[in-house]
Design a protein that fits this description.
heterodimer; A: 110 residues; 7-stranded mixed sheet; 4-stranded antiparallel sheet; B: 115 residues; mainly beta; 12 strands; 0% helix; globular
Chain lengths: 110, 115
Amino acid sequence: NAGVTQTPKFQVLKTGQSMTLQCAQDMNHNSMYWYRQDPGMGLRLIYYSASEGTTDKGEVPNGYNVSRLNKREFSLRLESAAPSQTSVYFCASSVLYEQYFGPGTRLTVT
Amino acid sequence: GDSVTQMEGPVTLSEEAFLTINCTYTATGYPSLFWYVQYPGEGLQLLLKATKADDKGSNKGFEATYRKETTSFHLEKGSVQVSDSAVYFCALTTQKAGANSKLTFGKGITLSVRP
């Protein structure tokens, strides 16, 4: 039981490049989330998916798109990366009140 | 909207010292409250929770009591260890159990424990 997995662990992009962050969970959870973590800002919700086939914007959705491919997988896409998107990105899934987090992707945009 | 306010950090303590980390909240309705911990290089994990007023959550020697009258959920531990060094986040949700549990997080506070 791997829990929540994220790939890649680290990524460096140039401004304007695109990439997709992958997330998968093997706990059969309905709800999944993408957060970004920045120093002094805590975690901020980018997008979430309450169930397969649905997605909703969170607090900071601009510059991102998401796909809930199936119940297991929830990907985050940066179409044209900007330096302001340099951050650590966490995926999570939830059951009842508890959210389970992946190990994170550290993204640097130069 | 909902919000969580944590005391400013970082906090540095000696091993076996008493720990208090303050957390207050603003929310509509009756939120459930959480403390999450993030060890270096890892994702967050749930430390403890309380789902109604006067509930006490506890885990690994940490405790927090849901105080509705002061809208607080302060985290305490009687004797910290070096292994408790981590970032601690207070969080809330106003969603009902079983629904999508969208969380609102505080900014987090870094705890360092010296041997």
